[in-house]
Predict the structure of Ribonuclease HII.
Amino acid sequence: MLLSNHSGKIFETGTDEAGRGCLAGPVTAAAVILPENFKIELLNDSKQLTEKNRDLLRPIIEQQAICYHVTHIEPVVIDDINILNASIKAMQDCIVQLNPIPEYIIVDGNRFKPVNNIPHECIIKGDGKYLSIAAASVLAKTYRDEYMNKIHEEFPMYNWKKNKGYPTKEHREAIRKYGITKYHRKSFRLLPEQLEISFE
């Protein structure tokens, strides 16, 4: 059973991202403030849920949340500032859009940078512990999947509808055959035999 609140503050936001390990597409984050009495048995870390259940949960979260926001950070920015900074930026960008302003932030994972002096805490596997982080993980994942399904139509040979930009064998074969697109992250090792780029 996921816990509803970590800090005891009414306006506590949970935040999480999706797509960090992908070769193509954005990294997507969501931040959610849930009402105190929010309860839904099905809700869990989005990776533990089927696609059907994530799609079922998304409108419930959107309707019942006090507020939420979702942000995509494009590959060109990921290449510029690196994936860790892009993931943190995506979460920060969501948080500053929330109204009311959160009093406390709980972040899935172990890395974050303060935003607007709001106290925060990083929680390892937080999406399996707290409802608001789990809700954020569901929104981030479903919005990102929707984005990947859309760009799949533009470049169907990479089969993003199925692999969502993750480094599957099929995705790598397509990169080998067709090269890369504007949606690929050029700073990532797109093929296993690629040489490492300088570490400056």
